[in-house]
Amino acid sequence: MEDKGIIQLYWDRNDQAIKITADQYGYYCKRIAQNILNNEEDAEECVNDTYLNAWNAMPTHWPEQLATFLGKITRNLAFNRYKYNHTQKRGGGEITLVLGELTDCVSDKDDVEQIIDRQELEKAINLFVRSLSTDKRNIFVRRYWYADSVTKIANDNGMLQGSVSKALERMRKQLKVYLTERGFEL
Amino acid sequence: MRKEDFFEVLGELDDDIVKGAETIMKKKMNWKIWGTMAACLTLVFSIGALFINTRKEKDMVIESGTTDVAPMVYVNDTLYKQSSDQQGYPELRDDFVYLGKILSDITNSQSGDTDGVPKENFQANHPIVGCEVYQYGENIVIKINNAYWLYMKYGEPEVNWNDLLETEKEQSDPSYKK
After folding, report:
1. Residue B21 and residue A71: Cβ atoms within 8 Å?
2. What is the pLDDT of residues B136-154, one digit of tens each?
3. DSSP 8-class letter at A148
4. Please, which pLDDT band fits residue B60 given cuts at 50, 70 and 90?
């Protein structure tokens, strides 16, 4: 079924919407949750919560892209679960590595004095990512949005793991410079 | 900013950027899947072709019928079959009577419709053209590689030499001594 039809089912409060969403996007959401949580059971729960959140959001929201709409919900839920698990000293996996890499871009300290315009920061990051070549953008998004492993990205792109790691490292440094030049001291 | 917060900010990338990476990945994955399937199919067909060829070769050998038939010669309108216990004599004996040489081999026949049994005089069904043929009693011997190999009259019940009575051995082989 096309996305419009699925969204319409949500708007009609037809519970078939969840079944069809699970059939068409269950694997996609599960992959995101699994990358972040590294735990089958927690990932499955996040995916089920994603359907519930989607049910509650529609209406009044009509997503432009159903896949990324669902993916973003899953990513947020999974990351919240990760943070909870992390304080309980549970979890780990790929997300720990991803977060470690992001310290190239941020200080990883709570800076209460600096007020950051979050929306402006999001815009700047979007512009930076758009400025990348298609291949590099793909690698960046796969790593820092989907939290895919370097191995998986390398395999899917026919690259060596070392090449992917190098490319990511270069992009993190470029992003740091890009944001600093625009006044974001992170 | 804490790295966890930055990860959340990155989660707000525009939909088309996120979708774009996923689409590229799917395309590449599809290529990989189809590529793998194609490679598997090629392998299966290759093995299948090899198997069929092997079967064909086997069938051809069986159909030719020449290798499954015992070594035989046709001499003086009589068919002889090599003795099953490969009995032979190292030297020419006085009682061997020279008859001639093997003239043809049906395995080289161009007609291809042979049943593996020689039918013309001094014809064999194995590559012994030019070998000398000697009559020995009611059987024949053929000189192959400096030894004389016994060919017994075809159709006669083949009796093992060791199973013969002493009198029968004397009758069969005049040079036999107790």
Report:
1. no
2. 888 899 998 888 898 888 8
3. -
4. very low
**CB-based contact A145 B10, cutoff 8 Å:** yes
What is the Cα–Cα distance from A131 to A114, expressed in whole angstroms? 27
Interface predicted TM-score (ipTM) of this complex, two decimals:
0.85
Share above pLDDT 90 across residues of chain A, in percent, rounded to a whole number: 66
A50 within 8 A of A70, measured Cβ to Cβ: yes
- pLDDT above 90: residue A168: yes
Q: Taking CA atoms, what residue in B is nearest to A115?
A: B1
Of A122, A137, A158, the CB nearest to B9: A122
SS3 breakdown of chain A: % helix, strand, coil, rounded to 5? 70, 0, 30
Residue A159 has pLDDT above 90, yes or no: no
Chain A CA closest to residue B8: A76
Q: Which has the higher per-residue pLDDT, B45 or B177?
A: B45
Give me the residues of B, 13-42, that contact A with CB < 8 A: 13-22, 24-25, 28-29, 32
User: What confidence score (pLDDT) does residue B65 get?
Assistant: 38
Facing residue for B17 by CB, picked from A95, A98, A129: A129
Question: Between A and B, how many CB-CB pairs are < 8 A?
Answer: 98
CB contact under 8 A, A118 and B9: yes
SS3 of A12, please? coil
pLDDT band at A43; cut points 50, 70, 90: very high
Residue numbers in B near A130 (CB within 8 A)? 17
Return the pLDDT at B112. 56
Of A67, A76, A111, the CB nearest to B1: A111
- State mean pLDDT over B39-44: 72
